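User: Teach me something about this protein's shape.
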Amino acid sequence: MKILNLYSGLGGNRKLWGNEHQVTAVELDCSIAKFYSHQFPNDKVIIGDAHDFLLNHYQEFDFIWSSPPCPSHSRARFWSSKPNKKVKPVYPDMKLYEEILLLKHYFNGKWSIENVNPFYTPLIKPDTKIGRHLFWNNFQVLEFTFVDADIKNGNLKEWEDFNGFDISGYKFNQRRDKIMRNCVNPKLGIHILNESQRKGFFTTNEICDLAKP
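Assistant: First, the predicted structure itself:
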């Protein structure tokens, strides 16, 4: 199966996917992409804009995973131990919803877009909620219970152990704690991939085709 892994980061979601698939990963940060390529040497790693790559290449893949940047959506923007601390306002990054609409209406394969619980009511209702993660996807995902990393109170070493990555020997362009907090739990990543391949489940496009006279 040909898989597109967008905003791949360290590769937490990809860690348990195995080597039987042809995986193309897209990551903008070259230092993070270097770490990913060392972890998954059989994957094709592209350094570039994942949002643009999706628009130009989505039709080339069987399954697409996308984890667009979450800081402008996250409730964490309002976490503070200082009650009077002002939060700098930003526009929520609408690339999240652009990708949902693109895949929902144009892509015939299986797809899943992951993000966090936002500080607002999602503009498009998510299809699945697992822990602190929201998923928009075109296949059914069965309930899944797992222990996620404590991104609010944990520390870098705990997050490394939890996700099974050792980043101590690498230099990054971003803060290490930020990179590791953004890492999707590997157990969650393999659960979503497995659900996308579950026999008897149909994409919304397939259901519509079956309904045609």
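Now, about its shape. The first helix runs from residue 30 to 39. The CA atoms of residues 155 and 177 lie 7 Å apart. If you'd like, I can walk through any region in more detail.
User: That's plenty for now, thanks!
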